[in-house]
Amino acid sequence: MSTKKFRLPRRVVQILTTLLIALIPTFGIFQIDLASASFHVLSREIWWSNFAFIIGLAIVLATAPVITYMTIGAVWCGWACPQNLISEWANNLTYRFLGKRADVRVDGKGVVIAASKNKAINWIALGTIFLGASLILAFIPIFLFYPVSDVWDFINVTSGQKIAPHLEYPYVFTVILIFIDIAFLRYFFCDYGCFYRMGQRMLNTRDALHVTYDASRSSDCTKCNYCATSCITAIQPTAIKIHDPCIGCGECIDACDALHDKSGTPGLLRFKIGTNVQTTTWLQKFRELSSRFNWLVGAVFLLGIAMMAWGVVMQEPVRPKLSWEAQQKIQLRERFCNKQCAQLQSTCRGDHMEGCYRAAACKCECSLHEDPDNAASDEWRQCVQKNTQRANKLDFNKSGQDIPLRQPGP
User: Fold this and answer.
1) Which positions ≥6 away from 303 have C-beta within 8 Å?
2) Residue pLDDT, tens place only, 337-365
3) Exposure string for 382-391, b = 16+ CB within 10 A, e = fewer
4) Angle subtended at Cα 13 by Cα 8 and Cα 14, rounded to the nearest 5 degrees
């Protein structure tokens, strides 16, 4: 029986978390609209001026990491964070193409390449795979900031639709950033660019879930370094310091268990909560975790959730934002109709209101002719009828000059 008891469930959680993060903006559950200074939550537009929602969101973003720092420690990093999933995948792929000890990261010991693997074909293959992954992953932040309809038109270039130009540059820029991250940064970003990781290092505690070492059996580790060679972040699992970049992945535990499984003895590494209480089962770990949970922070977190929900409910509904294609259609229609009615528009003056009414009727009639299935078609018909009637009345009543519909008072 395989002793890799943490790797498979960890992979499942990592993949599901990444899919969830990708699907949330794709299905309109949460999006950010920089152009209108608003959020889109469950297809509802929430203005940044919505005090309850903004304050609630700030509370949630501030308290959620604190809750994880005090309970599951760095497990989020090793079990759910897409950045670590991508970095680990990139490392494994680098080992396959450039050697099992290859290192091309900016925070490594320099470029380390196996002599037998240092071939142009290997570099090209590795770079092509990284670029392909970057082209796909770049759509996740694009979906977060742009309407789904625009992004789909951008992806489906064979549909005959004109590509929205405002998507090209952000997409290319995002692809470049992700490629640099995959190819060179990897865990360097976690250590120096991730705000969650910075907070975790400042608020880390031994009371949270962490990897512990059975020092009483240290003689079993003589000349053995298997757990360290299996460690993703290259630390010493038998002597983890509180500020070491341990991500709680469990790879070292699996490695130690696999080695000792041959002799029928348990490994020397395991997950533990707290410093004094010995927990052996998951139920005991859960009870210990619950006892160390800060309920005040939890209450503040729930308050933030409630304020966000209240902000969503109380936000006044607004018209849905038009896609880039719809906006272009409106602009083309207005430009065409302005040209068609330009002659009448030139006759619109304060002393010649008939020309103003006929120009307005012309624009509405042109819009109706160009886009008869538009939702505003009834309004356009009424516009044509009313403005034509007003123009005809002025034309009927004029005697040398226009007589206004309403005479000014004395």
Assistant:
1) 56, 59
2) 988 898 888 888 877 788 888 888 999 99
3) ebbeebbebb
4) 95
Which alpha helices (DSSP H) does 27-119 contain, by range?
A: 51-70, 75-79, 82-98
Look-up of token digits 């889109």: 40
What type of residue sits at position 255?
A
Q: Count the alpha carbons within 13 Å of 339 in the hemisphere toward its beta carbon.
A: 5
Rounded to whole angstroms, the Cα distance separating 44 from 254 reads 46
d(CA 330, CA 337): 11
Ranges 203-217, 281-295, 362-376, most confident: 362-376
The more confident residue out of 216 and 307 is 307
Q: How far apart are CA 365 and CA 381, in angstroms?
A: 7
Residue indicated by tokens 């886009």: 371
Length in residues, the chain: 410
240 Cβ contact partners less than 8 Å away, ≥ 6 residues apart: 210, 211, 213, 246
What's the pTM? 0.70
pLDDT digits over 152-207, tens only? 878 776 444 555 557 888 999 999 999 999 998 888 888 888 888 888 878 777 77
For the stretch 329-337, contacts whose Cβ atoms lie closer than 8 Å and that sit 24 or more positions apart, written own/partner, are: 329/371, 333/367, 333/370, 333/371, 334/367, 336/366, 336/370, 337/362, 337/363, 337/366, 337/367, 337/370
SS3 112: strand
Rounded CA-CA distance 377/374 in Å is: 5
Angle at alpha carbon of residue 381, lines to 377 and 383, rounded to 5°: 110
Give the integer Cα–Cα distance in Å for 86 and 319.
38
